[in-house]
């Protein structure tokens, strides 16, 4: 048996890659280039030899800080380009590589230039907005002033209070300087203040003015015809022009303070119509000049951003790579001579040759007189776990890793989950109409795979795209199970021939309840369509799906136990085989394996035996005659033997602690294949470097081992029952999906189709489509997906999978290229 197992071909995904702990001694002059080349290769995971030091105490902390500052400037440029709405595609011609110092100097110059242009543009924009508001106030306030002249005293005195402006605005024109100077005012006359305020503040502003002046004011308002850009938020806001008439110096002071508190901008408006027209012409002239200046500044700024945008992608990649290189160099230590850097790391065994070649090329390219020393070390700790995956298997491996990363060279559940996961999903989702809808979605993702992989997707779309092959397999298996259930949106079809049943006479032709007799061979594939609508449809389908769920569950749990055997054999643990695998196999199959056998025999023979009675009285009365519940000869003594096996296997599984106790010592076994524990004795030195296991003696703690194994035994015994019951979710969700489909088809689509009104039919069709899409294709898909996930994580992987390893994370530029800094 051992020879047969040893001759079996190894699977790449069955166990993780063999890992090697290596040490690098790199001359300082070639260290940067060596780490860069290793990052391009992406097959070496460095260990941090300076874990006790803070980031600021490390050797290359200044270089990392410089790269971080350059990353900040690049993010600033990217935000400015996005804010300006520019689309700068990178140049296609090959650009020469730029040194980090030159890039730092260029980025500083570009940042200073863009900041200066932004500052000038902001000032010009603020002046433009003030002039635009002034123009609107001049246009809108004229109507209020004309109507107030009938009540005025006839004096042409202008209020110097009206010359208030935002941020000291009065240096706009010669007219303002000449005509708007303060003059002696009539202290008892009617005065006014005009300005503009945001619409959302108007109601509170007017109420505050009324309360402050105790109603001794006249407030006029009118909306502006155009929206104005807010300089602080760059958003277009709607504003209201107002004119406040009042009397008295105290009222003027209060009104101006309230205007300042509410952010209202006040502008001087002369009462003379001629001066208003002249002032409006001057404001329009200045607005035209400012528009031209702003357009020229925007074009110049866009040209500068375009010049940066052409190389922005390359610069971002360069800075990220350099920062990653210096972060990695900070994980290395100087030797005693301060001339070499010493590093350690894990690499797959197959990659040692490639790493050695890369280091030789780096030494040659850096013109170093001393080569890099690369040698293999022995390791005490467990190596990282590394599986080589492709586009199909990567999604399933991620599903397994979400539960826990496999121990080093532990059996990988992802190998079997590629088939079992979509199949169990399809058992719960079986409908070949719904499966076709999933298939169309998966084919769409596959058809646009190249385009979508280069785009930045949302979180939901990214999840769907990452699992496109999982969706494809789930769709194919759903079509297969749907053909077995003979359901197309809950409607059965005679795809594989006619039904095996027909009516006994004409009285049952419209009933579908009684009178059906079998007159030909069984339906060749799947469920006979005549069961649909019959009185015994639910009992028949319930019995079929419930027993099928038990069979699938027992098969998958046995697969998990078999994998635990291969794990124990691989790690050389005969104790786990004798006191865990064998008792667990006997216990599970003596109880539920026997039940599965009875189900198959009952299906094959057509017996009417009550399996509930058989299983219950197997323990209550093992010597009692079975009578009509006997399915095969020798069933009663076989059941008695199974009862004995159950008791014996429980004791054997619980006595796992006896073997180390009898041997007088407790051996600690390292879960690895390649590395032994470093020792100091001569015996330890004789162990081969590639030894599968290192040994270390520990004090044997009887109580700890006894309690641990007792808990483990009780957990398995009780878990075997609960796990088998858990697989009944396959039956429950399949039944729920089928009944929901039937309800939507019969109570929505067929009910609407019974009316002659085309509008009612159209509404019924739309409701049926939405119910199918959002409930059956989205909610039911998610439900079946999560339940299949539970069955794999708990019921299947719990039999053999530890999941306490850690993932192999090599230093690779490909893994950091899309990371956000």
UniProtKB/TrEMBL annotation:
Say yes or no: keyword Ion transport present. Answer: yes
A biological process from GO: vacuolar acidification
Give the subcellular location: Membrane
Q: Which InterPro entries match?
A: V-ATPase_116kDa_su, V-type_ATPase_116kDa_su_euka
Membrane topology term reads:
Multi-pass membrane protein
Molecular function terms, GO-annotated: ATPase binding; proton-transporting ATPase activity, rotational mechanism
Task: Read off the Pfam families from this record.
Answer: V_ATPase_I
Predominant localisation class: membrane
Q: Which GO terms describe its cellular component?
A: vacuolar proton-transporting V-type ATPase complex; vacuolar proton-transporting V-type ATPase, V0 domain
Q: Which residues form a coiled coil?
A: 100-127
Which keywords does this chain's UniProt record carry?
A: Coiled coil, Hydrogen ion transport, Ion transport, Membrane, Transmembrane, Transmembrane helix, Transport
Membrane-spanning ranges: 423-446, 467-485, 548-566, 586-603, 758-779
What is known about what this protein does?
Essential component of the vacuolar proton pump (V-ATPase), a multimeric enzyme that catalyzes the translocation of protons across the membranes. Required for assembly and activity of the V-ATPase.
Identify its protein family: Belongs to the V-ATPase 116 kDa subunit family.
**PANTHER family in the record:** V-TYPE PROTON ATPASE SUBUNIT A (PTHR11629:SF105), VACUOLAR PROTON ATPASES (PTHR11629)
Q: What is this protein called?
A: V-type proton ATPase subunit a
Q: Which organism is it from?
A: Brassica campestris
């Amino acid at each position: 048996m051992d020879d047969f197992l040893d001759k079996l071909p190894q699977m790449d995904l069955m166990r993780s890659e063999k890992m090697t702990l290596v040490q690098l001694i790199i001359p300082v002059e070639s260290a940067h280039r060596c780490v860069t080349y290793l990052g391009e290769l992406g097959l070496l995971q460095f260990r941090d030899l300076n874990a006790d030091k803070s980031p600021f105490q490390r050797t290359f902390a200044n270089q990392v800080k410089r790269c971080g500052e350059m990353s900040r400037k690049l993010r600033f440029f990217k935000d400015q380009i996005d804010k300006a709405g520019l689309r700068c595609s990178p140049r296609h011609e090959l650009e020469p590589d730029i040194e980090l110092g030159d890039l730092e100097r260029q980025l500083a110059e570009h940042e200073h230039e863009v900041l200066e242009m932004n500052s000038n543009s902001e000032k010009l924009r603020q002046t433009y907005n003030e002039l635009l508001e002034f123009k609107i106030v001049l246009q809108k306030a004229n109507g209020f002033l004309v109507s107030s002249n009938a009540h005025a005293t006839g004096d042409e005195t202008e209020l110097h209070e009206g010359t208030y402006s935002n941020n000291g605005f009065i240096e706009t024109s010669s007219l303002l300087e000449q005509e708007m100077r303060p003059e002696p005012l009539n202290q008892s006359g009617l005065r006014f203040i005009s300005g503009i305020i945001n619409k959302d503040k108007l109601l509170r502003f007017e109420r505050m003015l009324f309360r402050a002046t105790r109603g001794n004011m006249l407030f006029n308002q009118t909306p502006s015809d155009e929206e104005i850009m807010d300089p602080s938020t760059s958003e277009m806001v709607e504003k209201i022009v107002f004119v406040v008439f009042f009397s008295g110096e105290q009222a003027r002071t209060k009104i101006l303070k309230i205007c300042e508190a509410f952010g209202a901008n006040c502008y001087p408006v002369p009462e003379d119509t001629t001066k208003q027209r002249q002032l409006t012409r001057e404001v329009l002239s200045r607005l035209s000049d400012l528009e031209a200046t702003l357009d020229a500044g925007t074009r110049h700024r866009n040209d500068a951003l375009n010049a940066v945008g052409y190389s922005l992608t390359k610069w971002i990649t360069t800075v990220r790579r350099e920062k990653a290189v210096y972060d990695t160099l900070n994980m290395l230590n100087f030797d005693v001579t301060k001339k070499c850097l010493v590093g350690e790391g894990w690499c797959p065994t197959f990659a040692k040759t490639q790493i050695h070649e890369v280091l030789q090329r780096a030494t040659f390219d850096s013109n170093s007189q001393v080569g890099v020393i690369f040698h293999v070390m022995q390791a005490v700790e467990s190596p990282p776990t590394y599986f080589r995956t492709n586009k199909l298997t990567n999604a399933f491996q991620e599903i397994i890793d979400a539960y826990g990363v496999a121990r080093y060279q532990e059996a990988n559940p992802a190998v079997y989950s590629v088939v079992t996961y979509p199949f169990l999903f399809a058992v719960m989702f079986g409908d070949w109409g719904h499966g076709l809808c999933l298939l169309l979605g998966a084919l769409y993702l596959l058809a646009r795979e190249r385009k979508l992989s280069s785009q930045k997707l949302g979180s939901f779309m990214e999840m769907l795209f990452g699992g496109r092959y999982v969706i494809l397999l789930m769709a194919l298996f759903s079509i297969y199970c749907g053909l077995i259930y003979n359901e197309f949106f809950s409607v059965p079809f005679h795809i594989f021939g006619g039904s095996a049943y027909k009516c006994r006479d004409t009285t049952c032709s419209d009933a579908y309840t009684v009178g059906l007799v079998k007159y030909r061979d069984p339906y060749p594939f799947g469920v006979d369509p005549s069961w649909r609508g019959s009185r015994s449809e639910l009992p028949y389908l319930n019995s079929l799906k419930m027993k099928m769920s038990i069979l699938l569950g027992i098969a998958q749990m046995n697969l998990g136990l078999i994998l635990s055997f291969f794990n124990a054999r691989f790690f050389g643990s005969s104790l786990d085989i004798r006191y865990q695998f064998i008792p667990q196999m006997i216990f599970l199959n003596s109880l539920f394996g026997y039940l599965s056998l009875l189900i198959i025999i009952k299906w094959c023979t057509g017996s009417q035996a009550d399996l509930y009675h058989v299983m219950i009285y197997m323990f209550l009365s093992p010597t009692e005659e079975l009578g009509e519940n006997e399915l095969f000869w020798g069933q009663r003594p076989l059941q008695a033997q199974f009862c004995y096996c159950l008791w014996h296997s429980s004791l054997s599984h619980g006595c796992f602690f006896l073997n180390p106790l009898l041997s007088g010592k407790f051996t600690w076994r390292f879960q690895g294949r390649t590395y032994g524990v470093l020792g100091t004795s001569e015996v330890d030195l004789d162990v081969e470097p590639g030894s599968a296991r290192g040994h270390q003696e520990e004090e044997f703690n009887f109580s700890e081992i006894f309690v641990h194994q007792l808990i483990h035994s009780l957990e398995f015994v009780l878990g075997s029952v609960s796990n088998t019951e858990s697989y009944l979710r396959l039956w429950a969700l399949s039944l729920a999906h089928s009944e929901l489909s039937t309800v939507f088809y019969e109570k929505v689509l067929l009910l609407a189709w019974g009316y002659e009104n085309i509008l009612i039919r159209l509404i019924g069709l739309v409701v049926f489509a939405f119910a199918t899409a959002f409930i059956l294709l989205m909610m039911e898909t998610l439900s079946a997906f999560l339940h299949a996930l539970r069955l794999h994580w708990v019921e299947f992987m719990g039999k053999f999978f530890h999941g306490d390893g850690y993932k192999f994370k090599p230093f690779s530029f490909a893994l950091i290229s899309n990371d956000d800094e």
